[in-house]
């Protein structure tokens, strides 16, 4: 039953995102289309919809499952060895700062990937036209 609700939620989110994205792009001034190639715009549409349809449901499911396992493990460790709670806080802070660096780096890599894929979509669009 949970899978049905997750699938319906993902489809609804995909529909809403695509509709808002399309409405926004249609209302943009012509200068936007002069500075951005059509391949980059198509790449953005396909990437966002792909993320919502394929990647997001699996990621949410994995996040909930892993989060529950981590919380259960921490509770068991603290219940059996209370002194371990003292060492968990510095380890969590170190992990948090490493995660900040990773997210910034990952975002830059995704931008680079998007820019490198743009000419392919642009060429494909021009070929169809």
From TrEMBL:
Q: Keyword Hydrolase: yes or no?
A: no
Establish whether keyword Transport is in the entry.
yes
Q: What's its membrane topology?
A: Multi-pass membrane protein
Q: Which GO terms describe its molecular function?
A: ABC-type transporter activity; ATP binding
State the UniProt keywords alphabetically.
ATP-binding, Membrane, Nucleotide-binding, Repeat, Transmembrane, Transmembrane helix, Transport
Question: Which Pfam family is one of this chain's hits?
Answer: ABC_membrane
Q: Which GO terms describe its cellular component?
A: endomembrane system; membrane
Q: Where are the transmembrane segments?
A: 70-98
Q: Where in the cell is it found?
A: Endomembrane system
Q: Which Gene3D superfamilies match?
A: ABC transporter type 1, transmembrane domain
Q: Identify this protein by name.
A: ABC transmembrane type-1 domain-containing protein
């Amino acid at each position: 039953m949970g899978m049905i609700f997750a699938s319906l939620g993902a489809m609804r989110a995909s529909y809403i995102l695509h509709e808002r994205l399309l409405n926004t792009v249609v209302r943009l001034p012509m200068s936007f289309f002069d500075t951005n190639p059509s391949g980059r715009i198509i790449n953005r549409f396909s990437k966002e919809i792909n993320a919502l349809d394929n990647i997001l449901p699996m990621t949410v499911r994995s996040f909930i499952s892993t989060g529950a396992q981590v919380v259960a493990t921490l509770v068991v460790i603290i219940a059996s060895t209370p002194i371990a709670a003292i060492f968990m806080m510095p380890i969590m802070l170190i992990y948090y700062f490493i995660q900040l660096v990773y997210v910034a780096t990952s975002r830059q890599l995704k931008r680079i990937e998007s820019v490198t894929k743009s000419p392919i979509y642009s060429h494909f669009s021009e070929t169809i036209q």
